[in-house]
Amino acid sequence: MNIASYNVRGLGRGVKWAAIRRLINKENIQMICLQETKKDSIDKTLCQAIWGSDEVMWEMQPGNNSAGGVLCMWTESAFKIQNKVIGNGFIFLEGVCIREALKICIVTIYSPCHIHNKRILWDSVRQLKQASQVRLWCVLGDLHKEPK
To answer: Which parts of the chain span the membrane according to its record (predicted)?
Structure first.
C-alpha cells in the first residue's frame, strides 16, 4: 500500500487541493495523512475534492484556533479500518491492507511544541502499542517541531 504524509501548513483552498490530488494520482497513493490542516471541521465534500473521487474514507482530528489538525484519507479498496483512536495530536488507525492481506496500525502525528504535551502524546501512542496485538506499525507525520 502506498502511503504519503505531508504537512500542508493550512489546507486552504483550490491550489493546495489540486497539488495534493496530483500527488495522489501521480504516485498512486492509497492513503494520505495530512498534518497542520488548521481546519476545525472537514466534511465529505472537502475530502472528495482533495482526493479527486467519491471513493474516499477519512478520519480527522480538528485544529484548534487555526492551528494543528490532522486528516487521513484513503480508499477503502486498499485499506479496511477495524479500529480507530483520535487523540490530541494524533490519529491511530488499525486495519487491513487489502492487497497485501496484512494487519497494520497506522499512526499519524502532529507533534505539539511544548515538551509536556509531547510526552502526553507519546505516552498515549505507547499505551496503544502495548495494548495492540498487531506487530506491523507505521508511524508518520510531523514528529518534531521546534518550541516557539
So the answer is: none
